[in-house]
Structure formats: C-alpha cells, structure tokens
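Data deposition worksheet. Section B asks for the primary sequence of the deposited chain exactly as it was used as input, without tags or linkers unless they were present during the calculation. Section C holds the resulting structure in token form. Section D is free text for depositor observations; keep each observation to a single sentence. Incomplete worksheets are returned to the depositor.
Section A, Depositor: J.P.
Section B:
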Amino acid sequence: MITKRIIPCLDVRNGRVVKGVNFEGVRDVSSPVELGKFYSDSGADELVFYDITASVEGRTLFTDILREVASTIFIPLTVGGGINTLEDFDRVLKCGADKVSVNSGAIRNPQLVYEAAQRYGDQCVVLSADIKRVNGELHVFAKGGREDTGMEAIEWIKRCVGNGAGEVVVNSIDTDGVKKGFDIEMLRAVCDAVNVPVIASGGAGCVQDFIDLFRKIPDIDAGLAASVFHFGEIAIPDLKRILAAEGINMRLI
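Section C:
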C-alpha cells in the first residue's frame, strides 16, 4: 500500500508566510525559514513553498529566502511562483528545490511543461491548478487565483499530464481557507482523469477532513494544508498517528 503524504504549504509574500481565505484577505503568519524547519522536524512528508505574488507582479521568485529554507529542512521541497521559463526551473532547482511547481507560466506557454519534463524528468514537474466553479463548470485560474482563464480544468490537467507533468496539486479556490473540508467532488474528478500522483489542497479544517479525504478518494496521494498547521489547530505528528490508527498508511517518526 502506498504511503499517504501530509504536506504543509508556505505561501510567501515579501519574505513572510501569509494566509488568506479564498485566496484573499491575507495575514502575516511567520518566517518561512523558521516554519519550514519546524515542519521538517515535526514529521511532514514534504514542504511546498509558493511565492504567491511573483506571477501577478511579473517578477522572478525570491531565491535568497528559498536557499535558506532549503538548507534547513530534510524533506522534499516543491517550489512555485513566477516559473515561466526553463531558466526559472534551473534557478530554483539550484537553490535546493526537489520539484518545481508551474501554474500561470504553463497557461501562458503550454509547451513549458513538456520542455521542462524533457530536460529535468517528469518527477520534477508539478502542475499546480487553481480551480474555481464558474456557472457550474470547473475553470482554471491564473495569477494567484485572480484571473479566470475560461479553460475547463479537467481537460487542462489531462493535457499537462500528457505533456509530462509528473504530479498535480489541485487547489480549490472555493474551499481555500474556509476549513469546511476538501473539495471531494473536484478531487475525485481529477483522480479519475489522470494516472499521476494528485495532491489535495484547500479546505482542511480538522483531522476528520483528512480522514474523509483518504477514505472517500483512495487514489489521492496527499493532503496539503496551511492554516490549520500554521495556527496550531492540527499538529502534524498527532494527525499522522490518528490517520495511521484509522488504517491509513502513514510514515511515522
């Protein structure tokens, strides 16, 4: 049985970890370096680092903080934000990232996923899809959830996986920060459509939400969250022990 992963996410703006609701109303949380080390020491399986304003501000990702985070953790690190070219992939990998997450850059240039997979391998390329319901349809959003592309989400994800994306992070804008549970319907649709690891993001509010996620979608690979971990509402060691007791395969420390 494949071990399920628990992944905290650092949304970084101006060098600080922040968190909002439905991608809006962000507030300051902590230092990404301190928080990254805390999660690494607490038994998180991986860490995701997003420079959340890089794309909308039209700049490259801040690499000085990234280097510091990478040097203090001992778990795989996925990095995203302002990834638009192969040079951006190269730069963040050299700063210590294990995988590179691309969203708006792939929307602007769909060939980017293919070219990156060819150069660095499928396992290095993570598609991050920000998805929101619009008139009953699942739409892909760009620029940190600010811009509706009009593209149907499932077909977009299938296209990118076909081009070489080795993993998909599904960010539900509708449930982000709301803490009412993961978007099971959306996540099930993605898992049914692709045969690469899928990471659920957006909506975790309590331990039961993670139990429901892994029970209702046995194919899901990981649960990603921010608020409940950042504000101490769920401790990762406790979460993983409870999940293991529920029969969900976990890596325990």
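Section D:
The radius of gyration is 16 Å.
The longest helix spans residues 32-41.
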